[in-house]
């Protein structure tokens, strides 16, 4: 019986030490520099470079109607880990981001990258670690 209590106590300590890395954290995305109050904003959350670069297999996607110049979107509970976010404003609501004749986006876009360059964001620059409730800022270009 004593051995059983020791095993139970040891398992409790082990679970308590492991569980913080597996706990869910809330992720919020704040988007600013919205210049046109029309259309929709599409937000995509990724957990790997391939999906981020190809815009496929997003963990979460959310569509928000634009009704103000800054928007805060809750993406909910996520396991602790590495993530990156992309967003764009579909001003004309045609369901996709439009590009100019030179291949640059003609609608506002941004990512969780700290870079303010007009170049496409890289996963390396946009990734962040989520281990507790966090808010990520996206500044539309």
Fold and architecture overview:
The protein has 141 residues and is of the alpha+beta class. Strands 2, 3, 5, 6 and 7 form a five-stranded antiparallel sheet that branches. A three-stranded mixed sheet has the order 4-1-8, with no helix packed on it. The relative contact order is 0.25. The longest helix has 21 residues. It is globular and about 45 Å long.
Strand-helix topology:
Elements: H1 2-22, E1 24-32, E2 40-46, H2 49-54, E3 60-65, E4 71-79, E5 81-90, E6 109-111, H3 123-126, E7 128-130, E8 134-139
Parallel strand pairs: 1-8
Antiparallel strand pairs: 1-4, 2-3, 2-5, 5-6, 5-7
Number of helices: 3
Report the β-strand fraction as a percent range.
35-45%
Structural class: alpha+beta
Distance between the termini: 66 Å
- The percent range for helix content is 10-25%
**Unreliable runs:** 13-17
Task: Provide mean pLDDT, rounded.
Answer: 88
Compressed to H and E, one letter per element, the order equals: HEEHEEEEHEE
Number of strands: 8
Q: Which shape, going by the Cα principal axes?
A: globular
Sheet with the most strands? 5 strands, antiparallel
Rounded Rg: 20 Å
Short description:
With 141 residues, the protein is of the alpha+beta class. The protein has helices at 2-22, 49-54, 123-126, and strands spanning 24-32, 40-46, 60-65, 71-79, 81-90, 109-111, 128-130, 134-139.
Key phrases:
single chain; 141 residues; alpha+beta; 5-stranded antiparallel β-sheet; 3-stranded mixed β-sheet; 8 strands
């Amino acid at each position: 019986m004593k051995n059983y209590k020791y095993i139970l106590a040891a398992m409790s300590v082990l679970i308590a030490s492991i569980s913080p890395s597996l706990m869910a954290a809330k992720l919020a995305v704040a988007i600013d520099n919205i210049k046109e109050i029309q259309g929709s904003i599409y937000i995509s959350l990724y957990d790997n470079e391939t999906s981020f670069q190809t815009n496929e297999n997003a963990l979460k996607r959310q569509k928000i109607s634009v009704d103000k110049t800054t928007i805060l979107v809750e993406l909910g509970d996520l396991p602790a880990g590495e993530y990156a976010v992309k967003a764009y404003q579909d001003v004309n609501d045609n369901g996709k981001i439009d590009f100019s004749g030179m291949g640059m986006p003609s609608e506002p876009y941004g990512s969780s990258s700290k870079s303010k360059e007009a170049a496409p964001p890289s996963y390396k620059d946009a990734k962040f670690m989520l281990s507790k409730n966090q808010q990520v800022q996206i500044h539309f270009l």
